[in-house]
Specification:
The complex is a heterotrimer of chains A (181), B (354) and C (303).
Chain A lengths: L8 H23 L1 H38 L3 H14 L4 H13 L3 H14 L13 H21 L4 H18 L4
Helix pairs in contact in A: 2-3, 2-4, 3-4, 4-5, 5-6, 5-7, 6-7
Chain B lengths: L4 H22 L10 H11 L13 H16 L11 H18 L3 H9 L5 H20 L19 H15 L18 H18 L3 H11 L4 H19 L17 H18 L3 H9 L3 H19 L11 H21 L4
Helix pairs in contact in B: 1-8, 1-10, 2-13, 3-7, 3-8, 3-12, 4-11, 4-13, 4-14, 5-6, 6-9, 6-11, 8-12, 9-10, 11-14, 12-13
Chain C lengths: L3 H4 L1 H20 L3 E7 L4 H19 L2 E7 L4 H6 L5 E4 L1 H11 L2 E7 L6 E2 L1 E6 L14 E3 L6 H13 L4 H4 L2 E3 L6 H10 L5 E5 H9 L8 E6 L3 E2 L2 E4 L5 H12 L6 E4 L2 E4 H5 L3 E3 L7 H10 L8
Helix pairs in contact in C: 3-10, 6-12
Classes of the chains: A mainly alpha (181), B mainly alpha (354), C alpha/beta (303).
């Protein structure tokens, strides 16, 4: 549309209808705000419910394991964990708990492998603000194990187990550092 | 080399990009991702419900700022022109595969250099790939591969307003928060700079980039063509130097290969992913950032590329194409190869032969 | 120019036939090397587990490996007689052969939660009233086979270090007879034949996974340190190049690798019940050596 353009009847009808549509958009958008706000709260609530339900189920499922861990009975905890894992084989929480137990037992390469599997399945375990976060434990493991893993690999590059352990620790280090994941 | 107004605006654009690229990360964006067009598009696609990765859903204000800032700049400079109509579907597909290439590398060309200036040496493979890809694109252009010229006559009047209108709508979404808009509460999308800072930075960058025509792949293209005489070279240098200095001063410079944030060590696929991005960028006239800026100044072909990028952002998450620190999934490798099939096939079919 | 076979068709045919025959002869003239495999439970099980691995090694190394199942108590004697140059044994037998015959370490097996290491435990039945190790005094105890590092040696050492002398402080102790001794220890406690027994951590893990026992059936009264699991070794005079090839083949073994057994392709690791191989150093066995010294077992026994 230019200033010199002549508007015929058809143009005027179109402009009139455009004005009505624009007004209707404004009215309906303004009118539906409260409903939409409630829907957002509902969505947030649904997410919160899902998160809490998950947390509750995990706590119940793994209670025997965490109980044994707290009592310092790590081997018993591992056996109980095997039973849960056989029922829920793909669950990230199981791998994370295995990582924790093996970490406490001093089996650091096994711990790293467990944490890697758990974090790959569910990044919540490495998030700072997640209620499931094991960031601190993983961070300590990486700090403690990485230097020795690097020197072990340097002295024996043909050893696939050392390479795998180093790759696991570097993966955890990368996830701890952040990035878009 | 003349120190003219264009040179100054290009250098200023580079400086701003380098500064905000790091500082947005300091202010809350994910590590080494102060500005990453591909990551932002994936996040925004998720926010709009186009994919359901709960860790990557946030309508990034920076993207909106790029387009609206470019729109404002184009209006201010009276450079806004509705134009388009040149191989639209190919540009849409190219936009899709731009995101595929970025997702496999984990980052757009801007993030590539932000990672590099933060000491992430795994990005070197991506740098090599991007340069190689731009080189291949230039070779194609010199041999007659062309998608066709943009023409104001080919584009209906006012069609160039659609992209700015769409992003204005996204801006409204941010403020009115409709129920379908999702925001992650965990993961990298939960990490973001404050809204006004992100939006302001985006607007500033969009405004500056529109006027200067600054583009990462464009800089590489011009350097390959013109060497030191290329004005965009100085924008590129300003970007790199500023980003490096800000990274050093904020303690974010950590040189190394392993354990870098948001990176993997499958160097071949980093090379190929960025190679695809470089090649496509030359053919469609700019990197993902430049496509956003052009869509703001009325280029509806760029707007189609942006639409393709949004589809790409959705699909790379929904179809397990995007790489992670764990590596490149098989879907990502297949998608990059498919992108090369498109580029190679298109180059053969579109080549103007004497 | 006419092609040679047109001018000399008969000569060409003879040449090709000769090459084909020579190529097939090459396979039949492969060197034969024997690997002695220690029987864990019985020969049949040992063959089922390790024939695919032996075939895999043959394929990879280019040598015809022949499997020789050997009873644990006969192993050292038959090794000394030169019946086999390569060995597959538990870590205790490796240690003995290393000390006495300078056996070379090739690679160690990975299995279970602890990878290439394993440990032992002392268990009682839940609800038996025996909840602590010191309560095992005066009870009926069972050990695993005497040459089992984590069925006998490690637990015996653990008891001594805990101030319990098995020769004096138990009402009695026994070692189950026959095969499947390790599982018999666990079932023996479960069904009340023994009050307390040694059990390998790997057996407890495997039996729990298989549903044979529940974790809540037992109290783990104590656990030993972790020591290396089963190990491949080679005689001191074995060809170093061949030893390196075997090591490489074992370390590269993946879950998807297969070997042909009686016309069927079998997954090597799955058949062997193992997760892979790892290269350990001889010093990783020092803990086991210290245990053997404390328990006064070969090769350190003093009379």
């Amino acid at each position: 549309m230019t200033p010199n353009m002549k508007l015929d009847r058809f143009d005027k009808i179109l402009l009139f209808l455009l004005a009505i549509a624009a007004s209707a958009l404004v009215v309906y958008s303004a009118g539906s705000f409260p409903a939409k706000t409630t829907a957002i709260e509902t969505r947030s609530m649904e997410r919160e419910l899902a998160a809490q339900a998950r947390a509750g189920l995990l706590e119940k499922l793994y209670a025997p394991v965490t109980g044994a861990m707290q009592a310092g009975q790590y081997q018993e905890a591992l056996l109980k964990l095997e039973e849960v894992i056989s029922r829920y084989p793909g669950d990230a929480h199981g791998f994370i708990l295995k990582g924790e137990i093996l970490c406490r037992m001093g089996v650091l390469d096994g711990a790293a492998a467990g944490f890697v599997r758990g974090v790959k399945l569910n990044g919540d375990y490495i998030d700072k603000n997640s209620s499931f976060s094991k960031r601190d434990t993983i961070s300590v493991l990486v700090e403690k194990s990485l230097p020795s893993a690097q020197s072990a690999y340097k002295s024996s590059r043909s050893n696939p187990a050392l390479k795998e352990n180093l790759a696991n620790l570097n993966y955890l280090k990368s996830r701890l550092a952040g990035g878009c994941e | 080399m003349r120190l003219d107004r264009h040179m100054i605006t290009v250098t200023l654009s580079g400086l701003l990009l380098g500064f905000f690229g790091v500082m947005l990360s300091v202010w809350g964006n994910p590590e080494n991702s102060g500005i990453c067009v591909s990551c932002f598009i994936e996040n925004s696609a998720g926010a709009l419900g186009l994919h359901n990765n709960p860790r990557l859903q946030y309508l990034r204000p920076e993207l909106i700022g790029f387009v609206l800032g470019a729109f404002a700049s184009a209006l201010f400079r009276r450079e806004f022109r509705s134009r388009g109509g040149s191989a639209p579907l190919l540009r849409f597909a190219s936009g899709f595969f731009l995101i595929v290439g970025c997702a496999v590398f984990i980052g757009c060309p801007i993030k590539l250099f932000l990672r590099f200036t933060a000491g992430d040496l795994t990005s070197l493979a991506g740098v090599a790939g991007l340069v190689a890809g731009v080189g291949c694109g230039l070779k194609g252009l010199s041999k007659g591969v062309e998608l066709g010229r943009l023409s104001p006559a080919a584009a209906p009047r006012g069609s160039g307003l659609l992209a700015p209108a769409a992003f204005l709508m996204f801006l409204l979404f941010i403020f009115i928060s409709p129920s379908f808009l999702v925001a992650s509460e965990k993961g990298s999308s939960a990490q973001h700079a404050p809204l006004l800072i992100s939006l302001s930075a985006g607007l500033a960058l969009g405004f500056a980039a529109q006027g200067s025509r600054f583009c990462i792949t464009g800089s590489i293209r011009d350097i390959l063509l013109m060497g030191r005489r290329a004005p965009l070279l100085w924008g590129g240098i300003a970007f790199l130097v500023t980003a490096l200095l800000v990274n050093l001063s904020t303690g974010r410079f950590k040189p190394g290969f392993a354990g870098q944030p948001g990176s993997h060590q499958e160097y071949i696929w980093s090379f190929l992913g960025m190679g695809l991005v470089g090649w496509l960028s030359v053919l469609i006239g700019g990197c993902p950032f430049r496509q956003l800026v052009k869509s703001g100044e009325g280029d509806s072909d760029a707007a189609l590329a942006v639409a393709g990028m949004f589809l790409g952002g959705a699909v790379v998450q929904g179809w397990d194409i995007a790489a992670t620190s764990a590596g490149v999934p098989l879907g990502g490798k297949i998608a990059v190869i498919s992108g090369f099939l498109l580029v190679l096939g298109g180059s053969i079919l579109l080549r103007e032969r004497e | 120019m006419t092609l040679p076979f047109r001018r000399f068709p008969l000569a060409t045919i003879i040449l090709i036939a000769t090459l084909v025959i020579l190529a097939s002869c090459k396979d039949q003239s492969r060197k034969v090397v024997k690997i002695g495999y220690m029987n864990c439970n019985n020969e049949q099980e040992t063959r089922r587990r390790f024939v695919p691995l032996t075939r895999y090694l043959s394929d990879k190394v280019g040598v015809e490996f022949v499997m020789v199942p050997v009873d644990t108590h006969d192993f050292e004697k038959r090794f000394n007689q030169g019946e086999f140059a390569f060995t597959h044994t538990n870590s205790y037998i490796y240690m003995v052969l290393k000390e006495r015959n300078n056996l070379k370490l090739i690679a160690s097996e990975k299995r279970g939660n602890f990878g290439s290491r394993s440990g032992g435990a002392i268990i009682s039945r839940k609800g038996s009233g025996i909840d602590r190790l010191d309560q095992a005094r005066g009870k009926k105890f069972a050990f695993g086979p005497m040459l089992a590092p984590t069925g006998y040696l490690a637990e015996y050492d653990l008891l001594l270090r805990s101030g319990i002398d098995p020769e004096k402080d138990f009402a009695s102790y026994t070692i189950p007879s026959g095969s499947y001794k390790h599982e018999k220890l666990v079932y023996g406690v479960l069904f009340g034949q023994y009050d307390v027994s040694a059990a390998t951590l790997l057996d407890l893990e495997t039996m729990t996974k298989e549903g044979k026992i529940a974790a809540d059936d037992f109290n783990i009264l104590a656990q030993t340190p972790l020591v290396p699991y089963c190990t491949f070794g080679a005689a001191a005079n074995a060809d170093p190049g061949l030893v390196d090839k075997v090591r490489k083949a074992l370390l590269e073994l993946k879950a998807t690798d297969t070997a042909e057994v009686e016309g069927e392709r079998v997954k090597v690791l799955k058949a062997a019940w193992i997760d892979g191989y790892e290269e350990l150093a001889d010093k990783d066995f020092d803990l086991l050596r210290e245990m053997a010294k404390r328990v006064n077992m070969p090769p350190y026994q003093k009379f």
